C-alpha cells in the first residue's frame, strides 16, 4: 500500500522507488541515488566543463565517488525512514530534506540515463549567511552555522542552499531550470517549509546564474577570494531567494 506521506512523490510500480517528474520535461525524473551511480561520478567530475564550476577534488577518484554516494544515500534514507514512521499520521510531515536528488532521463525503452544531481539542504557556509557589510570573525561565522543547524525542521528561519550539476551533453536544454522549479515547488516549499535560500556560483558561471534567476533568485553580492580550488582563488556570486506568498 502506498504511503500517503510520500506525496507528491510518485512510486515506480516495478521497484517501489519514489520519484518526482519534472514539470516541463516529462521524460525526466528525480530519484534517490543508486549504487550503480558510483561508477558514473568520476568521469563526470573529471570533465573540465563540470569541475571548473563545482570545485570537487581533482583528480576525482573512486574513493571520492564512494564517499559522496554514502553521504547522499544516508540523507535520502533518513527522510524516507521519517516518512515511513509517520505513515499513519493524518497530516503531511514537515521533514528536513528531500529523499530524491538524482536526475535521470527515461528512454522509450524504459531505461533510465543518469543526467546529474540537484539538492536543497541547510546552508553550511557561515560566510554566505553573514549580513552584508557587518564584519565578523571566524567564531561568529561558526555561530551562524551552528544556529542554522539547530533549528527544528519546518522552522521558517532556516537558511537553505542549492547544489546541482547536469552532464555537459544536456547543457542548454532548460533541464536544470525545470528541475529546480520542480524540486522547489513540489517538495521543498510544501514538505520542508523552505522560505529562504542562499545559493552561490563561481564568478563566470553565467549558466548557473541564469538557472537561479529564472527561478526567482536575485544576485545580491560578490565575495572576492572566497575559496581556493586547484591553486586558484575564486570569487563567488551570492544569489538569494525568499518565499513570496503569491509566488509560484
From TrEMBL:
Gene Ontology molecular function terms on file: acyltransferase activity, transferring groups other than amino-acyl groups
Residue span, N-acetyltransferase domain: 28-218
Gene3D superfamilies, per database record: 3.40.630.30
Protein name per the record: N-acetyltransferase domain-containing protein
Lineage summary: Eukaryota, Fungi, Dikarya, Basidiomycota, Agaricomycotina
